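Notebook entry, structure prediction.
Reason for the run: the old model in the group folder had no record of what sequence produced it. Starting over properly, with the input documented here first.
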Amino acid sequence: MHRFTLCTFANFVDVLRLAADEGDRSRPIQCRWKVIAPDLRPITASCGVSVQPQEVFGSPKLFDYIVVVGGLIDGMDRCDERVQAFLQKAAEAGVPLVGLCTGTFILPPV
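New structure, fully documented this time:
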């Protein structure tokens, strides 16, 4: 999400990094992750730091789960329609969706 909370994102990714390998080598052996978005423009966090997506939305079936990191509550009503469509497609495909922070507010109803 635009204006996502950087701390939430960073903590989640760092836990994945630690869980992915043994011996603190940061090798993505047990799990891998990607930052995806509707386009390749940087996504700006609420603190002003930007994160570069690695790829654009494709088939949600390529993922074991999809995590949405929410942002400031006053921007939730401006969620990109492409994000909502991708999440709906993922839900219909049975891909588990995880909402972090206010990301739970944009997940499609089950």
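Summary: Strands lie at 36-37, 43-44, 50-51, 55-56, 66-69, 97-100.
The old model has been moved to the deprecated folder.
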